[in-house]
Design a protein that fits this description.
The chain is built from one helix and 26 strands. By secondary structure, the chain is mainly beta. It has one domain: Sandwich (Jelly Rolls).
């Protein structure tokens, strides 16, 4: 009997190993965080005229001057790093930067406080959460109003992965702050989490340029505790179809439309930034047309967060049950 049990256990282990090896991992372009473009920008004299660096996940290069980073066909990534120009004043905000990891690099996403003060012209304080996402940023940013409309999120995508995979560690601070562009920064009650969100959507546009979608797949997880050592190959499963009745469902996994606190935007066929309106869950068998992927050091939305919280990110990949 013991021998039969041992053989059975060995077979189970073999099958589990075969299943693990049967998974196919696809690297997202530039998702290894090894290539960074540096923009060297001199801020306006009225702000002190300091020279600051902004970093983009893109082929290695150094660009001098206040050059906006444009969405392109080489790297699919953008970030919360931003070149701003309120009232014609050149200001930078850097909440994402490369950091050494072993022989290479990872991405450091941090919640930061940014101040822009020029006497008699502007006096702005904002809390900015370090985020990376697939898409583009509308630069230069001229106002602190409606920040989500500056993020052009999503890339064409038609596959069906079973998980989002990456390496991470995180440090979480306790005090939540809000600063929305006025000179004042406020303390708030509550907690703040890092968040990884991947949505697979089936998207279309009407004749007026409005963009609608149905949710095909959902992969969302929040990270609220310190994780001081690297966790490698961490997977967040992709759940397909209507998941509202599933035991793992949380309210933050629900559909996102224009009534949601933080809708996501895209550029329509007319060249205008419009919100994507998720109007339902996709029926079984519907293929995605686009992927929304955003990983952030805070889940509280624009201008709110625990200043000093950091999420380190590396090796962003997609996992399939077989080679697509």
């Amino acid at each position: 009997m013991k021998r039969v049990f041992a053989i059975g256990f060995a077979l189970m282990s073999l099958f589990a190993t075969q299943e693990a090896f049967s998974q196919y991992v696809e690297k997202l372009p530039f998702g290894d965080m090894e290539q960074w473009q540096t923009r060297v920008i001199k801020e306006s004299f009225l702000l002190g005229g300091d020279t600051k660096n902004l970093y983009d996940i893109a082929p290695k290069a150094e660009i001098k001057g206040a050059t906006p980073y444009r969405r392109n066909n080489i790297s699919p990534w953008a970030s919360s790093n931003v070149l701003a120009s309120p009232a014609g004043i050149v200001k930078t905000s850097c909440s994402v930067r490369p950091e050494k990891r072993g022989d290479g690099y990872c991405a450091r996403l941090e919640v930061v406080e940014e101040r822009c003060k020029a006497i008699g012209i502007v006096n702005i304080v904002v809390v900015a959460s370090g985020s990376v996402f697939l898409g583009g940023m509308a630069e230069p940013v001229k106002t602190a109003k409606d920040p989500m409309s500056k993020l052009d999120q999503g890339i064409p995508f038609t596959k069906r992965p079973i998980a989002l995979q990456f390496d991470y560690k995180t440090k979480r601070e306790k005090q939540v702050y809000r600063a929305t562009g006025s000179p004042k920064i406020s303390k708030l009650e509550g907690t703040d989490n890092a968040e990884a969100m991947m949505l697979l959507i089936h998207r279309w546009e009407d004749e007026d340029g409005n963009v609608y979608a149905k949710r095909v797949g959902t992969a969302i997880e929040k990270f609220g505790s310190d994780v001081t050592e690297w966790v490698n190959d961490y997977q967040i499963p992709v759940h397909y179809g209507d998941i509202t009745k599933e035991p793992f469902y949380k309210s933050y996994m629900g559909l996102i439309d224009t009534s949601s606190p933080n809708p996501y935007y895209t550029t329509n066929s007319k060249g205008k930034m419009v919100p994507v309106q998720e109007i339902g869950w996709a029926e079984p068998g519907v293929e995605p047309t686009h992927m929304i992927l955003k990983i952030s050091s805070s889940d509280l939305g624009p201008y709110v967060g625990t200043v000093g919280s950091v999420f380190w990110l590396d090796n962003v990949e997609l996992v399939y049950d077989k080679k697509p």
